[in-house]
Amino acid sequence: MKPATSFVVAALLLVSTADQGDWRADGPLQVGGAHVGISLWAPEGHMQSWSGTFGGLSLCVENGRATIVEVAPLGGFPADAFTAWVHTVPAGQARKTRLGSVLGAPPKFDEEYAAGAADFGVFTEPSGHSVDRPCAPDPGDEWDDVEIVVSVATDRDGASLPGVVVVYDVAGRRFREHVPGTMIVCGDTTPPQHCRGLARWR
Hints:
With about 200 residues, the protein is mostly beta strands. The chain has one helix at about 5-20; strands spanning about 30, 40, 50-60, 65-75, 80-90, 100-105, 120-125, 130, 145-155, 160-170, 175-185. The chain has one domain. The protein contains one helix and eleven strands, in the order αβββββββββββ. The relative contact order is 0.29. Mean pLDDT is about 80; it is low at about 1-15 and about 195-200.
């Protein structure tokens, strides 16, 4: 995929925003469950344009409350091919599930090759989302299940996302959390150790 110049500039601005400022890396927000070498194969008949979504980046705080400022891709990944969401499954909902890796993109998963979002909970933009779920909740307490999910759009080439950086605010102080973990939508140019040649439906 060869994004237009405006999208390349947007990607550089997004990464530079996450890399600027008096950042701290020892904040209370914990992002768990980074993927290592997780890959998705192209849906049959849709290799020229498709999306895959990766979840499992669970959110909690050691204390207090953290407010997300942005979620950006690591490694200069193009902004037009990357979208981040906060996925919330309310406490007490019958089906509490993280996404793992699925075809399609939030919030509706309404692509003809996707499974739909009936059981997936609520998707919101990360900016401004407050996280107060404790990493060590008291026994018996019920909290919403909250995670970051990222959607990667691609064409026949495929794409490899090396991870994300989460920028957040706690009482006026900025922090950032680097979350490495390769997430791959398979195609002609993706690593052969994760994708056997041309991406295919399975």
